[in-house]
Amino acid sequence: MLKFDFLKLVLFVVVIAAFVACSEDKKDEVTPTLEVKTFTNLYAPQTGGRGEPIGGTFVKFSFAKGDIVSDNSWDIAFRGTTILINGGAAIGINDEPQRTGNGAITIVTGTFEEVKEVPDASLFKQDAANTYAVPTGSGTGWYNYNPVINLLTPIAGRVFVVKTHDGKYAKFEILSYYKNAPANPDTTDESIFRYYTFRYVYQPKGTTF
Amino acid sequence: MIGFCTVQSNVFAQYAMDTLKNYSLVEFVVTGTRTERSVSSLPSPVQVITAESIQKSGVSRLNEIIQEQTGLITVPFFNGGEGVQLQGLDAAYVMILIDGQPLVGRNAGTIDLSRITVNNIERIEIIKGASSSLYGSEALAGVVNIITKKLATDGDWKLNFNYRLATFNTNDANASVRYGKNKVAFELFGNYFSSQGYDLGGNSIFQTVEPFYNYTLQPKLKVQLSEQTDLVANSRYYFQNQENRTIINSIGYEGESIIEEWNNSIFINQKINDQFKIVYDLYATNYKTDEYLNDASENLFEENFYNQWFFRPEIRAHWRKGLNVLTTGIGMNYETMERTYFTERARLNSEYVFAQYEWFLQEKWNVLAGFRYDNHHQYQSQFSPKLGLNYKYSSNLSIKASVGYGYKAPDLRQLYFDFTNSTFGYSVAGYNVAQNRLAILESQGQILFSNNLDFSTPLKPESSINTNLGAFYQKNKWSADINFFYNRISNLIDTRAIAQRTNGQSVFSYFNLDQIFTYGAELNATYRINKDLSLSGGYQYLIAKDETTIEQIEKGELFARNLSTLASFRLVPNDYFGLFNRSKHITNLKINYNLTKYNTNINARLFYRSKYGVFDTNSNNILDDYDLFVKGYFLLNLSATKEFKHGFALQLGALNLLNHKDIDNIPNLPGRQLFGRVQYNF
Q1: Contacts of B399 (CB under 8 A, 6+ apart)
Q2: Between 20 and 30 A from A58 (CA), which of A146, B139, B230, B669?
Q3: Dihedral, CA atoms, B125, B127, B262, B231, nearest 10 degrees?
Q4: From the CA atom positions of chain A, what is the Rg in Å?
């Protein structure tokens, strides 16, 4: 008897699942397929460093426009290894752009393709006084730094999901910090440092990728 | 001569042939128990390198002879120094003794074996496995004990001179004089060693190993104070001067690097009666380095110093009843260190007591049980037990098993280092000074945020449990031993960020973080074909991994990048290779051949080491199959010694005859080195 009930239950679940799957399929037909884009060589220089106070303008990026912007429509901003989000309050560092949006960011461990859903809202973080939404320092945020060979590498398997300044979503993965994303950067050539290459998907509506 | 010694001497080989049945060829060691024990009866694995095999190999320094032994790998660190990896455990966990007294001077955690000349050595004993029950801290992986030549009171003058010239203008000159009569015996040994170093390429400013010279002086005195009491005083002085060059931001700097070391010990052996003996042992050592770099206009650019003192009085008592021996000891360590980046002189003190019982139950069984308790003032006190069992199955075969605890105290650097990098602006603060450093930085407004880590309990020593199970076999022309080992180390000390500075850099300190394990098997065998020819071989299989990494991979938390698309992909358990610098397979094959007619000995040694990783080339902090590896390689060392009349001998040979080089990965392998040596014994 119990076995029979169990089988019924399985059947029920399968049917429901099929419906759900079908309805999702239908929704996909409506939504245009999201495109994976790669932005190469976003140059994010900084002044100072090596013990001196760090400064310089942050380079602001908009996922909707897929490009560097200079107005308030930015979602994330780069300077050296520091990444800011257009949401929250000023951290308290030099030459910080004003937060004008309500953006937030979260780090997901996984491959880029695996991240299909926007994580729970509670996991998203904003910049705040003395707090980076994207933690800085080797091994804690987006990169590993090897001081022996002076190599900075984006940590494999870290995908960032961004709530944009105007409440849309995007995911991105940093691929390289060196100009033209070489597999083995020449770490003695400072002219190739601080060039971000990342791939991203922008989702103008909805919470799936 | 039994088993472990891999390069057989003609004399012993002859004994083995002619007199095996009625002549006892028992090899004794002292490091395993601090009493004389035969290798076959000892419950834990031990390896012995004899003076004869050292002499025949034609090498000059300790690192060179160590790397010829099964299961021992010398690992290079900066400045061309080398430490020894044992049972897959790091050189930092191997204690180095000269005549039972520990060497200090681990500036970067490891003792450079090339500091020690192999001339004037009677034998080298290598105890594999945790030995903290006798030796305390540092003897976590094992102990290498260098035993210098013994003094004799036979009334004969003994003189020895030898000079060796090798590639890279390497000069090795040795002289010793020994005399003893009635109640007094003494020896004076001197060694001078110099080399122009070598360069594997890379830049025009500095070489891989810079030119250096060093010398060692070792006086030794033995006085029979009374019928029951004798006194032995050993001293060693070592001095090295090496050129020092570097490039910082494309600018070259030049200077010198000086090492000075003193070891002084006095033993008084008091034989109360046939059953009871007391040893009073007083030891003091000082290890000092001074380094500087000048810029092109001779202005001082950088200076570094290191000054470590170590004192140890110890009293040991041995009670013997039949074969059973109870050894007890009590002592104290007092250590100080001053070095660049220490705010003040750091001190470590501890008192300790140990006891060990060697119990021969019946003819077939013997048990070794011991413990040591170290009462430390600067970190957690330690209790280190050990238990070993030896079963003599037959006159040819004995079975050995042992389990022991080993530990390595946090070193003074991990406790007291206080350093801020002037180029990048990060800071490293030892565990005991970290809170103070944070408070200072905070009051200067240099801290952005603190990770609020807890410093309330003292930093724990790194500790291990070591298990060995082996067998020792000897029959006719054969001798062989096998040992399976397992080591598990907990509380490995590593750095972690404790705060973020306003300049964007981190403040680091040391914490007990990881757990690793190593296991494997070691096999040695010797076959004496006839009195002039013997073959020996050795093999080690090794797995060495980090438990945290294994867990992370199982949880799917570790990734690597595809080198062409740079996209991340998830690693699977099979992708994890293990710890850096560990080869799964290491083998050696040695041939010793005497051309008796020509008074000539030919000695050939072939070594193979399977692939291993040195760098995490894909920067995910672990060594996985997608990293670049050092390919497996062969090394061949060859030497020929001819003896002439009146104590003269001539030796010719080559190290790394196949001229194997790997410029990027093996800085301690300079390519083929030819050498010649003349020797005179009087």
Answers
A1: B390, B391, B393, B470, B471, B472
A2: A146
A3: -60
A4: 21
Extents of the domains making up chain A: 1-30, 33-203
B503/A54 Cβ within 8 A: yes
Tokens of A119: 């994580």
- For the cut 80, the answer to whether the pLDDT of residue B16 exceeds it is no
Neighbours of B401 (CB within 10 A): 18
A contacts of B553 (beta carbons < 8 Å): none
DSSP string, B385-443: EEEEEEEE-SSSEEEEEEEEEEEEPPPHHHHHBEEE-TTT--EEE-TTTHHHHHHHHHH
Q: How far apart are CA B410 and CA B493, in angstroms?
A: 8
Cβ <8 Å between A109 and B557: yes
Q: Token digits for B614?
A: 């040195």
Contact in structure between B197 and B213 (CB atoms under 8 Å): no
Question: Is the CB of B569 less than 8 angstroms away from the CB of A139?
Answer: no
A126 touching B (Cβ < 8 Å): no
Residues in A touching B497 (Cβ below 8 Å)? 137-140
> The tokens of B307 are what?
């000054």
Q: What is the pLDDT of residues B601-644, one digit of tens each?
A: 999 999 999 999 988 888 888 999 999 899 999 999 999 999 99
Contact state of A197 with B566 under an 8 Å Cβ cutoff: yes
Domain membership of residue B2 (yes or no) is: no
What is the distance between the alpha carbons of residues B582 and B87, in angstroms, rounded to a whole number? 10
Q: How many CA atoms lie within 13 A of A37 on its CB side?
A: 15
| Radius of gyration, alpha carbons of chain B | 26
Q: Within B295-383, where are the H helices?
A: none
For residues A41 and A197, give the distance between their C-alpha atoms in angstroms, rounded to a whole number.
5
3-state secondary structure of B157: coil
Q: Find out whether A60 and A42 touch, Cβ atoms under 8 Å.
A: no
Interchain CB contact of A151 with B (< 8 Å): yes
d(CA B96, CA B115): 11
Does pLDDT of B227 surpass 50? Answer: yes
Task: Report residue B469: phi and psi, to 5°.
Answer: -140, 120
What does the block give as tokens for A160?
A: 């960032």
Integer CA distances (angstroms), B508 to B342, B450, B514, B663, B671, in order: 15, 11, 16, 32, 39
Dihedral sign of CA atoms A107, A110, A113, A118 in order: negative
B5 is a domain residue: no
Q: Is B1 inside any structural domain?
A: no
Residue identified by tokens 């942050």 is A58
Give the domain range for residue B104. 10-681
Cβ-contact B400, B128 below 8 angstroms: no
Q: Say if CB B209 and CB B220 are below 8 A apart.
A: no
- Residue B133, in any domain of the structure: yes
CA nearest to B292, candidates B246, B338, B251, B248 = B246
**A–B: how many Cβ contacts below 8 A?**
88
Burial class (CB in 10 A: 0-12, 13-18, 19+), A15: exposed
- Report yes or no for ipTM above 0.90: no
In order, the DSSP letters of B532-573 are: TEEEEEEEEEEEEEEHHHHHHHHTT--EEE-TTT--EEE--G
Instruction: Report which residue type is found at B509.
Output: S
CB-CB neighbours of B333 under 10 Å: 21
**How many domains would you assign to chain B?**
1
pLDDT in tens, A102-155: 999 999 999 999 999 999 999 999 999 888 999 887 778 899 887 777 889 999
SS3 content of chain B, % helix, strand, coil (to 5): 10, 55, 35
User: Reduced to 3 states, what is the DSSP secondary structure of residue B121?
Assistant: strand
* Nearest of B388, B401, B397 to residue B364 by alpha carbon: B397
CATH number for the domain that contains residue B241: 2.40.170.20
B551-562 b/e with 16+ CB inside 10 Å = b?
ebbeeeebbbbe
Report pLDDT digits (tens) over B161-204.
999 999 999 999 999 999 999 999 999 999 999 999 999 876 77
